[in-house]
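Sample A.
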Amino acid sequence: MADAALRLTRLAEELLGEKLPVRIRAWDGSESGPPGAPVLVIRHRRALRRLLWKPGELGLARAWVAGELDIEGDLYEALDLMAALIWERGAVAEGGVHPVRDPRVRAFAKGLLRLAGPWPPPPAPPEEVRRRSGTLHTKRRDKEAISHHYDVGNDFYELVLGPSMVYSCAYWEDGGSLEEAQRDKLDLVCRKLALKEGDRLLDVGCGWGSMAIHAAREYGARVTGVTLSVEQAAFARKRIAQEGLADRIDVRVQDYRDVRDGPYDAISSIGMAEHVGTVRFREYADDLYALLRPGGRLLNHQIARRPEKDESSYHVDDFIDAYVFPDGELAPVGRTMATLEEAGFEARDVESIREHYALTLRRWVANLEKQWDRAVRMTSAGRARVWRLYMAASALSFEHNKIGVNQILVVRPAEGGASRMPLRTRDWTASATG
């Protein structure tokens, strides 16, 4: 008798103390749960073995990446329902699902064990980062982490990001396209930095060169871009040559800590500081301060998390750390601001664009889903599944104010404390490009 779905539903409802809001379809063809709800498809019993071996997020992530778990129906609705029921209630937590002394948990585990099939548990999918040893955020370890994320293939990123090749939050107006919104974001950064003909701009974490190209082409800046990704640098240099801007832009495979050719008139750091880490952020701030001329501006565009009541309890999301951004860390915006000020910067403007990132991520997910088969051929089915899940889940996190993104504009004060800023600092709100 095919009844695995019903048995799983009963086990989950006994553990959680309420009805499941999603439907379950099991490997034996059985189904259980509310009609019309999103369907959690468990394609193989291996998924249960993964969860028993690694209770919590990592076990679920491994099953998802391996294709043993899937969702039919609205992905966002399903993630929302499961997050509200499981993660936000603490049923899935770091290291397990409630303490093992809880009789409900023990009953749940025993029930899963009967359904899971023979041991041992399957190996982790090949897309998972192998555990790194050594000190966090050394130059070597950071280079390896960046390579894991960004050296997936330029063609794959172009499929997801679109022609703009900008892998950070766009700046939207109603009815605009993704390419227009990304152009507007780059232009906003240039205007906040007050770039003008001949200014030296350092673009830290320059990606595929989009910011450098925009600053050089539209504002006449002379740009140095640094990235740790060999593939990004090669792609950026090719684009720059095609634009006829090779005399204005220099792209280097270089750690920002090794840049020594300041001073620069301005620095842009867009979606890079998340890779720096708490232990290195003051060093990051000090280095960028030293690279700016007095009166020069830094635009730090960075994802932020909500503060914890006990900051020592913060830990990096297991799925993100294992499959997406190894060693990536988020900090509250207040901590980022304080560290920049401690380095000597003066804070001049902070703009939250949280809702803009949710819109951006939903467009990226749509691009991926529209060309799914091609994306799988470019990388792997597991890698494509990683990107779909992380971008969709991140969109929901931005929408629900679990995380945010901020553009922080700071200045290195000139002699006597002068900022060399206009009295009305938000003159950048009127786009120079129309």
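Sample B.
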Amino acid sequence: MSALTLSGIAASPAMAEDGSTAQASEEFEYFFTGNVQFDREPLEGVKITVEGGGFEADAETDVDGKWRIGVPEKGEYEVTLDEDTLPEGVVVAKGEATVTAEFGLTKLKAVNFFLGEGERTTTNFGAQLLERVINGLNFGLLLALAAIGLSLIFGTTGLSNFAHAEMVTFGALMVLSFGVDLAWPIWLAIAIAIVLSAGLGWTLDAVIWKPLRKRGVGLIPLMIVSIGLSLAIRYTYQFFYGGATRQLPGATAPKELSFGGVQLSWIDVGSMIVSVVVLLAVAYFLVKTRIGKATRAVADNASLASASGIDVDRVIRIVWVLGAALAGLSGILWAYFRPGVSWDMGFQILLLIFAAVTLGGLGTAFGALVGSLIVGLFIEISTLWLPSDLKYVGALVVLILVLLFRPQGILGRRERIG
């Protein structure tokens, strides 16, 4: 006889090729997903039922042992494995055929049923720590792409741009439009999305921000305009794309790579490589190129830079284009990390982007990178001791504690008064 072992480790959602696991999942915004395995071999045809809040649905595992069930809203549900559908000789340990599961901050929740020879699968602390460090680096790097763009915009204009979240969302939505709706090659869809994101930054500066700067509008009114713009763009996304979460091609790729006992997918590795390469390119741009040096000069003192012959408006326009392109790329990587594309996905990490910029030092691109890595690592590592629902709260607490002792941020300069 074999006994049931449960694991709460998140798994990538998958649809059954025969359609059995579809169960109208795409009609809902939230869904449960998981695997059923016996001695690491998938079990096909096992019935899973999800029940709660007056809602009930079921599905059968596919040939890969995977299942997926959509639910109408967040809440507490009971996930039950039907023992009668298990192969002969495989049984469930008493009381463990039903699991109570609840969504956290994300829109998907994994519940896995791993069957073995009466053993409970455990992971040692070192392996768990390494897994979270890698996930934290991945998240921190993609967060840095958005944070550096926001930091450059703040440094050159003084604007706290709350609409930066919608720039993040824009990149992912464009890949969804071209790569899924139009079924273009995913690499081409990503390239187009980044170019269109850069175009969005150019347009916003040309149509809105430059005219307001010319009129001498203060920073507080500009910030309020950015909040209104953020709301307008966000709900425009919802109108055209709906409220459901959709997946990009390859977002649910299996974790076929092993690093120190940690399972990774090619998407995870590719995301980190792309982030590092782009961040190195941005660093080279800021340090070695004439435009990059001009950008740092404008961020340091715009009036003095203008008196030195630097075209400040041109530099600001370039910063908007660069910042929007980085935000769009960050949104694409965020869509693969979550995974999923939704109309408010950028807004979900906006406070973390601001936290990273503030932690590293306002207006400093390299400070934004350092702050993002710290925020990303802390968010993931803290789940070893904190409930997953509190991991973002913990990151903001760290921000407050650091600023109490170093108000200018890690790499920021202390302002002189008088």
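B remarks: The first strand starts at residue 3 and ends at 7. The radius of gyration is 24 Å.
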